[in-house]
Specification:
The chain is α+β, with helices and mostly antiparallel strands and 461 residues long. Helix content is 67%, strand content 7%. The strands form 3 sheets. The protein has a 4-stranded antiparallel sheet. A two-stranded antiparallel sheet has the order 5-6. The two termini are 30 Å apart.
Length: 461
């Protein structure tokens, strides 16, 4: 019988120290993210043993409980409801969390976390619209349901046409400004009337600069708003602050930021195409091989705006299929561990539970429950990812680019989002070949590593 979200949340709450020990609650695509006041009051092993929990990631006073797509949303809602009932999510806890975050955070980590906070909430819409865009493309190519395809095209494209507004709104919200002012300034980027404005001798185009321009515009709006708040009399604040914020940030967007962000966006797209067309196998090997360590360090968040920029400019990101090969190497390595350690019942049970999620691109359970604790399988998983990336990159050199119309899923879950310069069928075939290569190399490299004194789990106590 499937466990309800309420049961999972109710089981987790006492194991993390109770309501008084929780200072914040949030979630991403797969993880319930909890801020913890006293880390010693958390029973990691008991949390990991809760049915429905796929893994646990501890990072200082942050606890991340891996629940998987879909489940994480409902469990988080129930968890927040329980905390609200208990009334323990107090301001003091938030202050403790912020104090610890300031002590432990580096400028790079802080910047990457904030960038992720801007873009991660947009991923569900990107996925939904991306799947519909792929479905519409299949119907158009097949000549089917011609009366429905214009409607599907409108549904799939509406969000992408206005994504800059959402980026601006979230940017202001994350960086401490008024969200609607951030959205208002970012809306300038996509407003058709900008075609009448000339900057640096060049007429602007609606959408020029894309999400990067919207991000920069909203950031500037936040700083202008803060400047106004400290100088404008309270009686005039409600009138002058929004006006000055929109005016100053808006003019800067039109006569500088859109132009500069447009250049950066063009460079990103050109560099990605050149990299794959010129050094495809090498680029794929490096990207596929290093993605797992990047995820562990949190540095993969820097790629989110790059993916989004490529999707805006080209309709798909050519980087995500390469990076997704890291998950294939992880699956292959886990299968090899399963075969080699026949007598380790506990580890084999973990692998059986985590493997379906791994095949669908949720790699944390396998990373933190299998390969990382054993050590060497983590490296051999990276080798599998590198091989899969090199396979996909090889076809890019031949002119067959594989891309994803949205970010978020990987593994088998990425198939509905695949497309490329030569159609979705070829893109899916190349991607499938990359997955199989990653599985095979990850498996063989891990299997062989056991024959030369490779990793053995410590005996259970």
């Amino acid at each position: 019988m499937q466990r309800s979200p309420y049961d999972t949340a109710a089981a987790l709450l006492p194991l993390v120290g109770g309501p008084a020990n929780v200072t914040s609650v949030a979630h991403c695509m797969t993880r319930l993210r909890l801020g913890i006041a006293d880390r010693e009051r958390v029973d990691d092993e008991a949390v990991r043993a809760v049915p429905g929990v796929l893994g646990v990631v501890a990072d200082g006073n942050s606890l991340q409980v891996v629940l998987g797509p879909g489940a994480v949303v409902t469990v988080t809602a129930e968890f927040q409801r329980l905390l609200g009932t208990a009334g323990q999510l107090a301001a003091r806890g938030a202050e403790l969390r912020e104090a610890r975050a300031r002590r432990n955070a580096t400028p790079l980590k802080t910047a990457l976390r904030r960038i992720a906070d801007v873009f991660v909430p947009l991923i569900p819409a990107l996925i939904g619209c991306g799947v519909l865009a792929g479905l519409n493309g299949l119907l158009v190519n097949a000549g089917l349901l011609s009366s429905l395809t214009p409607a599907l095209a409108a549904i799939a494209s509406g969000f992408m046409a206005l994504i800059s507004v959402f980026v601006g709104y979230n940017t202001a919200k994350v960086f401490g400004g008024t969200p609607v002012l951030g959205g208002a300034v970012a809306a300038i980027v996509v407003y058709p009337g900008v075609a009448k404005v000339t900057a640096f001798g060049v007429t602007l185009a609606p959408g020029q600069g894309g999400v990067l321009g919207a991000l920069a515009a909203a950031l500037l709006a936040v700083y202008v708003e803060r400047w106004c708040r400290g100088r404008v009399p309270e009686a005039l604040d409600v009138l002058l602050t929004p006006t000055v914020t929109v005016l100053v940030a808006g003019l800067a967007t039109l006569y500088g930021l859109m132009y500069a962000a447009g250049l950066v966006s063009s460079v990103i797209a050109t560099a990605a195409d050149w990299l794959l067309a010129t050094t495809g196998p090498l680029a794929g090997l490096i990207l596929g091989g290093l993605f797992l360590p990047l995820v562990m360090l949190g540095l993969h968040q820097a790629l989110i705006p790059i993916h989004t920029t490529l999707i805006q400019q080209q309709g798909y990101t050519v980087l995500l299929p390469l990076l997704a090969m890291a998950g294939a190497g992880q699956v292959g390595a886990a299968l090899a561990v399963y075969v080699r350690l026949r007598h380790d019942t506990s580890l084999r049970t973990t692998i059986r539970s985590a493997l379906p999620a791994g095949l669908l691109g949720v790699g944390e359970p396998l990373i933190y429950g299998v390969s990382l604790p054993l050590g060497r399988p983590f490296l051999t998983a990276c080798a599998g990812g590198a091989a899969g990336g090199a396979f996909v990159g090889f076809f890019a050199v031949l002119g067959d680019r594989v891309g994803a119309t949205a970010i978020g899923p990987s593994g088998w879950a990425l198939f509905p989002l695949l497309t490329g310069n030569r159609g979705p069928a070829l893109a899916a075939a190349v991607y499938a070949g990359g997955l199989l290569t990653g599985y095979a190399v990850g498996f063989l490299a891990t299997y062989i590593s056991f024959s030369d004194g490779g990793p053995r789990p410590e005996p259970s106590m």
